[in-house]
Amino acid sequence: MAPTVTESRPHTLFSFGTLLDPRVQTALFGRPVPSSPASLAGHATRPLTITDPSVIATSGQEVHLTLERRIGSTVEGGVLHLTDRELAAADDYEVDDYVRRRVLLSSGESAWAYLDARPLRPAARMVIAGDSIAYGRCDPRGGWAARLAAGHIARNEAEHRVFNLAIPGSTLTDVREQTPALLGPRHPDTILLAAGINDSAVPLAAPDPAQDGLSCLGDNLAALAAMALSHNARLVVAGPAWLDETRTGDYEGLCFTRDRALALRESMRTWCAEHHIDYLDLWEPLRDRADLLVDGLHPDAEGHRLLHGHLEAIGR
Asked: How far is CA 167 from the centre of its chain?
């Protein structure tokens, strides 16, 4: 019996910089690769200084370009048609300042592109979708989301916007069902999804395994990722914050536990890594800080301040 031959899948990669150079392609892939002109709307470029000697040697340039969001702007470039091996080589070539994510080209087709590894740094118009913690419950200043909005808008009052669509009690299913109709007039380029802790809750009265929010986590995240891509927006998933289960044993008929929250955290992180979606971990800032939780679940003002500082540090 003849051995099974594994066929390489075709990949499309949008580039606007050194990867379009045939000399770079030959150095990386062993050949100039098929390509076609393409453009990416809603984006502009800015310079990025490279320090990796091998990348500088291959490209011959110390300054590359990276993408940022800007309504009304378009980046002209090309789409490279790559094999699995060639896409892996492109991944190895890009420095840690970049990550590979899906974008929607001006043609309406989706393709890979290398974006800023800090997902909130290139954003202009952000939508926050989430639950009571993203809503800012228990903080008169509006929680970490309000602090994030204030800083983001202050950086560029003319072009930066933040729309907080978080609703207390929301699950990922709720966000999936309610958010799409609200996105159009807001023209988001980044969707910060800060929900899921309610999916980890278990009803105290006769829990139904069929209603377990963790079991449909992947389906909900996939639907939300597709929704974001349809708006050419970048989905950024914020994981759950630490909770004090000694005070959440009976929370309005629900049971929140550390093990379930950790299962949610790990499932979200794994799914995002497998599907090239940005994940921002919010667990550590409040770990073992029960004094910063009003009811074991919701941070107080100081807790929200710490979460905001952590988001800024890892997202921007």
From this structure: 20
